[in-house]
Design a protein that fits this description.
By secondary structure, the protein is an alpha/beta fold. It has 18 helices and twelve strands. The strands form three sheets. The protein has an eight-stranded parallel sheet with strand order 4-11-10-9-8-7-6-5. The chain has a two-stranded antiparallel ribbon with strand order 1-12. Helix 15 links the parallel strand 9 and strand 10. The radius of gyration is 22 Å and the shape is globular.
């Protein structure tokens, strides 16, 4: 028979979990997020719905975004065992520099709308992690401000080509003068995609105070307080605003850009050039023939063309065809470190992460970005160890395939 005894306080107290008062409430909530999806749910609670949907949404039926994410569910590893994976090197060589992880932080637009610290918070965490960060033409922090705020970050600059060519020429010169070493030329924005969530939410640039937004203020007072008591939201590299982001892209950017414009870019940019937005094998070959240094297989996070293809499905044949001439990267649909490892195993030099860190920014500013990158880093390292890869080069030799169908 079980013998019972009285509970002793000194035995119970060590079992009681007390909060770490050295960490803020937001930090403790982020600590409990086990995945990027958990951070996404936290972001949904903290940001106004229109702001969250700006990040979370995609073009029209959002089929392109779903396909990008579903493609990763088809990945199948064959893990190797009996290998010494006590020490794992997650670093890669990327465009002449060392990146501590096989992912980089993609350029994103209007970042201060998500949190007032915006691009500077993201760049600071990138510096901590030893990875590159791309500032967008649609960024809300200027080229000069970001360089001053985070001088230790390896900085790239993403370029949209305006109808007025004097503007991008000025941007390239300024970026080169302030230590940005790679230019990311985005080529999938002949016109802006139709993003239905933005239309339904009435999200404009800058946000307007309507009856709906006034109601949102009651639900998200901290977000609105930050917006209304800091510098007004605006694009740092564009003087024109108004309408949705899709409207802005159509109105300002040049739909006539072709491969011939790469030579014009070379006249004004002495650093490395990456073309982002490749969505076919034929265009990958054209990009390689143009003599660029890298290309990114990307459907713009599903935010441009609806019913497009999944970059991951295109990756193996592109890497086989042009990977010996240009560095091949991928973005779109990445929500875990295992996704990162899968893309590298299928032929990518590395991946660009965008939405994932934006969820972190909405959820908790700089702390949220840091939490997302901590999650991704741990998942990359653990996945490498579990498939028997000690280095990223060994990941590229791993046994992996895309299953023909989901089940």
């Amino acid at each position: 028979m079980t013998q019972r005894r009285l509970l002793r306080p000194q035995e119970i107290l060590p079992l009681v979990g007390l909060p770490d008062r050295a960490r803020t409430l937001t930090q403790r909530r982020l600590d409990r997020c086990a995945s990027v999806w958990d951070v996404r749910r936290m972001a949904l609670r903290r940001a106004p719905r229109a702001v969250f949907d700006y990040v979370d949404g995609a073009a029209m039926s959002e089929t392109s975004l779903r396909r990008s994410r579903e493609a990763f569910r088809r990945v199948e590893f064959t893990p190797r065992v009996l290998r010494d994976v006590a020490d794992v090197d997650t670093s890669i060589e990327t465009l002449g520099g060392r990146n501590a992880l096989p992912f980089l932080l993609a350029p994103t637009g209007f970042t201060r709308m998500l949190h007032t610290d915006g691009e500077t918070a993201v760049a600071r965490v990138a510096a901590e992690k030893g990875i590159a960060y791309g500032l967008s033409t649609l960024g809300t922090t200027s080229i000069e401000e970001l360089a001053a705020a985070s001088p230790d970050t390896r900085r790239w600059f993403q370029l949209y080509v305006n109808r007025d060519r004097a503007r991008p020429e000025d941007l390239m010169h300024r970026a080169g003068a302030h230590g940005y070493d790679t230019l990311i030329l985005t080529v999938d924005t002949a016109v802006g995609g139709i993003r239905r969530r933005e239309v339904r939410n009435g999200l404009t640039i800058p946000p307007q105070l309507t009856v709906g937004t006034l109601a949102e203020m009651a639900l998200h007072p901290r977000w609105w307080f930050d917006v209304l008591t800091t510098e007004p939201l605006s694009f740092a590299s564009l003087s024109t605003t108004g309408g949705t982001v899709g409207d802005l892209l159509t109105r300002v950017f040049d739909p006539g850009i072709t491969g011939e414009d790469v030579a014009w870019i070379r006249e004004h940019w002495s650093g490395r050039v990456m073309i982002k937005g490749i969505q076919s094998l034929e265009d990958a070959r054209i990009a390689a023939d143009l003599g660029v240094d890298a290309l990114v297989l990307s459907n713009h996070g599903g935010r441009q063309v609806d019913m497009g293809n999944a970059p991951l499905e295109l990756l193996p044949e592109v890497a086989a065809a042009v990977g010996d001439r240009v560095e091949v990267y991928l973005d779109g649909g990445i929500m875990s470190g295992t996704d990162v490892v899968a893309a590298v195993a299928l032929g990518a030099r590395g991946v660009l992460v965008g939405r994932a860190y934006l969820y972190g920014l909405m959820a908790g500013g700089e702390d949220g970005v840091r939490r997302v990158l901590d999650i991704l880093e741990k998942e990359v390292r653990t996945t490498m160890q579990l498939i028997g890869a000690r280095t990223v080069d060994e990941v590229r030799q791993a046994e992996v395939r895309l299953r023909p169908t989901l089940r």
